[in-house]
Design brief:
This protein is α/β, with parallel strands linked by helices. The chain is built from 18 helices and 11 strands. Residues 457-474 have a biased composition (Polar residues).
Length: 474
């Protein structure tokens, strides 16, 4: 464009826009009417301008730092795997399901394992060099990882062609089943040794999902998971482990909720926190090399008006992709009712495919790059999480907060606050506290919160109290 037509217009400042808004409000208070206060502890303006970006310019460093450049020419710049969960009960039937999903849209597997499975039966005719494989062990992670690596070796697959990771975080596990710190460090050391030959396979995870699905805020989940990783790093480096090796074998797992822009910013900020933490340990780590595995949220799912969960899944999947996740696992929309059926599994698998093949979210590496609003959100989340991490460290770190129960109490307090917000209609959830169908056949208890000791954090759903209230009224 040769003629710069915008120069004909006067420059409009943010204050000009605020003054115009105040005029339109006809005397109403601008702050009280249009500025939103978040549970994370900061304010959201109704609009953002280049003036706002001046204090957040540091975020430009992380624009377009999503995934490494594809090695194959012609592949879209934005790459993520469509991961399908397989709960392995019987190896033969699980293998049939695996081959079925791989032929219908999946290019990643999440295998939930006991650890004693026959991998030759389970993974018969599976070619791991073309997909990503993620292992979620119910018990001993060493056993599950060894069995998978033995299968790969026995079948002659190149070690560098095995992609994926182990979804196991020892500190997160301690929030469900008590364990001591030294035992966790022993396990991680063994996992690191097992994974050395498999250069592209991550052997342990940093799990922020556990805090999200237990009801924590975005700042809480980022601060607690990073603090746990600092605890792990310090323990391993004291044992002589190389920080570079630890970061290279790390996989970050998160859950992405329905607060669309906040969740986009959260995923992006997780990458920033890991990158800057690596620099503190003098590790040269490219931001795009950090692998983020995203789940859609269990916390947001409902048992009433279950079909609305399809929309929630889609919003959450979009946020995960635009936030920069490298692998995406979409929960079945009826997951809160118990075991998903074949239809809901297919719908979940199709979400990622539709966002790629019909919405073209893979055609641009970083579509939200340059957004003033998201830059502001990222900056606010980063500094709030950073302050909280520093406070945790001053008070003895993650393990101390876990042992004295302050971590668990804080998450549970936020959980109660957010659940109550639906009961009082401070927040709206379609089908639960607005447009409720009293005759909805899906209005059944479904999966409620499991019994929870004071030292535990169990996954639950925000709508649980409101649903129970609706059932009692019905």
């Amino acid at each position: 464009m040769k003629d710069k037509l915008f120069s004909d217009f006067p420059v409009t400042t943010k204050q000009d826009w605020i003054n115009q808004a105040i005029q339109e409000l006809k005397g109403k208070d601008f702050e009280k009417t249009l500025v939103t206060k978040t549970r994370e502890g900061f304010s959201l303006d109704p609009f953002y301008t280049p003036e706002d970006f001046k204090s957040h310019e540091w975020t430009k460093k992380y624009q377009n730092q999503v995934n490494p450049k594809p090695e194959i020419p012609g592949i879209s710049p934005r790459v993520w795997s469509n991961v399908v969960r397989i709960d392995v009960v019987d190896e033969k039937s699980a293998n049939i399901e695996i081959l079925e999903v791989l032929q219908h849209g999946a290019d990643g597997l999440l295998l939930v394992l006991e650890g004693n499975e026959n991998m030759d039966v389970l993974l018969q005719n599976v070619l791991p060099q073309y997909i990503q494989v993620f292992l979620c062990p119910k018990n001993n992670p060493d056993q599950a990882l060894s069995a998978f690596f033995d299968w790969a070796n026995d079948n002659g697959f190149e070690k560098k062609e095995i992609h994926g990771g182990l979804l196991w975080d020892g500190f997160a596990q301690a929030l469900n089943a008590s364990n001591d710190k030294e035992s966790i460090l022993d396990i991680v050391e063994n996992l690191l040794e097992l994974g050395l030959p498999f250069t592209r396979f991550k052997v342990f995870s940093l799990n922020s999902a556990i805090y999200h699905d237990a009801g924590g805020s975005a700042v809480q989940e980022m601060a607690f998971c990073i603090s746990a990783f600092i605890e792990l790093m310090d323990g391993l480096t004291e044992r002589g482990r190389n920080p570079q090796e630890i970061f290279q074998k790390l996989l970050v797992e998160c859950s992405v909720g329905s607060d669309y822009f906040m969740e986009i910013a959260k995923v992006r900020t997780l990458r920033v926190l890991i990158h800057q933490l690596a620099a503190l340990y003098q590790v040269n780590l490219a931001p795009e090399s950090i692998f983020i595995f995203a789940n859609t949220s269990f916390w947001t799912k409902t048992t009433q008006d279950v079909q609305s969960n399809i929309l929630r899944n889609t919003t959450e999947a979009m946020a995960a992709i635009l936030g920069g996740s490298n692998a995406l696992h979409v929960l079945a929309h009826d997951v809160a009712l118990g075991a998903p059926n074949e239809f809901s599994k297919r719908m979940a698998r199709n979400v990622s495919s539709i966002l790629k093949e019909e919405s073209y979210l893979d055609k641009v590496l970083d579509p939200v790059s340059g957004s003033y609003y998201l830059a502001s959100l990222m900056s606010s989340l980063f500094y709030k999480a950073k302050d909280k991490i520093e406070l945790l460290e001053q008070k003895g770190g993650w393990w101390m907060a876990y042992q004295n129960l302050t971590l668990q109490k804080e998450i549970k307090a936020m959980r109660s606050e957010r659940m109550l917000a639906l009961v009082t209609k401070e927040e709206t959830k379609i089908g639960v506290n607005k447009y409720v169908n009293r005759e909805d056949s899906d209005a059944v208890p479904g999966i409620n919160r499991m019994p929870e000791d004071e030292n535990q954090l169990k996954s639950t759903r925000q709508s649980l109290l409101a649903e129970n209230k609706n059932q009692n009224q019905g």
